[in-house]
Amino acid sequence: MFERSDETLVKQALNGKKSAWITLVKRYEKHLFNYTLRMVSNREDAMDLMQDVFVAVFRNLSSFRGDSPFKGWLFKIAHYRCIEFYRRKKPMQSLDDTPEQEEVDDSTCPEFNFSSGQQAQDIQKALQHLPFNQKIVVELKFFQHATFEDISYQLGISINTAKSRLYSALDKLKDHLELDYV
C-alpha cells in the first residue's frame, strides 16, 4: 500500500483532516514512547511525556517549516520535554531515590535483538548511569539512527560536541559493562 509522507500528512492535518494527524501519531508513538522511557526510566512518566510531546506538536504543527524531516522536529520537541522533566524533578529526587529501570519494548530496537534479555537489561542499566547530555546522544545515534548532523541540529550543539559526548559516553559504558562481564 502507498504510504503518505510525513510532510503530506502534516499539510493534511493542518487542513483539518483528523485521520492524517492520527496516522502521524500512530507512526511515531511506539518510537517516541521507547525514547521517553529510555530517558526517564519510568513507564508512567514516559507515557505522560509522550502525551505532552504530541500535544505540543499538535499545537505547533503550523510552525513546522519542513526544513528538516518531521521525525527530527518531533524528537527535538521530545528532547526539550525530557529536559523540562528533569529540571522539574531534580530538586525533588535525591540520588539515592533512583527509579528502577523499566523494561523497554525492544521490538523497535534491533540493536537489542542480538543479545540475550540479560545483556539488554545490563545495557539499559548502564545507560542510566550516563549524564543526560551523553545519554541523549547515545539514544539519538544508536536507537534513532540519527547522523551527527541530525544530532547537532536536534540538540543545538556542534557536530564535534555531539561526537565528543558520544565517545565519552561509550567510554563510560565500556567501563561500566566491563565490571559486569570481566
TrEMBL record:
<dbReference type="InterPro" id="IPR036388">
    <property type="entry name" value="WH-like_DNA-bd_sf"/>
</dbReference>
<protein>
    <submittedName>
        <fullName>Sigma-70 family RNA polymerase sigma factor</fullName>
    </submittedName>
</protein>
<keyword id="KW-0731">Sigma factor</keyword>
<dbReference type="InterPro" id="IPR013325">
    <property type="entry name" value="RNA_pol_sigma_r2"/>
</dbReference>
<feature type="domain" description="RNA polymerase sigma factor 70 region 4 type 2">
    <location>
        <begin position="121"/>
        <end position="173"/>
    </location>
</feature>
<keyword id="KW-0805">Transcription regulation</keyword>
<dbReference type="InterPro" id="IPR013324">
    <property type="entry name" value="RNA_pol_sigma_r3/r4-like"/>
</dbReference>
<dbReference type="InterPro" id="IPR007627">
    <property type="entry name" value="RNA_pol_sigma70_r2"/>
</dbReference>
<comment type="similarity">
    <text>Belongs to the sigma-70 factor family. ECF subfamily.</text>
</comment>
<dbReference type="Pfam" id="PF08281">
    <property type="entry name" value="Sigma70_r4_2"/>
</dbReference>
<feature type="domain" description="RNA polymerase sigma-70 region 2">
    <location>
        <begin position="24"/>
        <end position="90"/>
    </location>
</feature>
<dbReference type="InterPro" id="IPR013249">
    <property type="entry name" value="RNA_pol_sigma70_r4_t2"/>
</dbReference>
<dbReference type="InterPro" id="IPR014284">
    <property type="entry name" value="RNA_pol_sigma-70_dom"/>
</dbReference>
<dbReference type="InterPro" id="IPR039425">
    <property type="entry name" value="RNA_pol_sigma-70-like"/>
</dbReference>
<dbReference type="Pfam" id="PF04542">
    <property type="entry name" value="Sigma70_r2"/>
</dbReference>
<keyword id="KW-0804">Transcription</keyword>
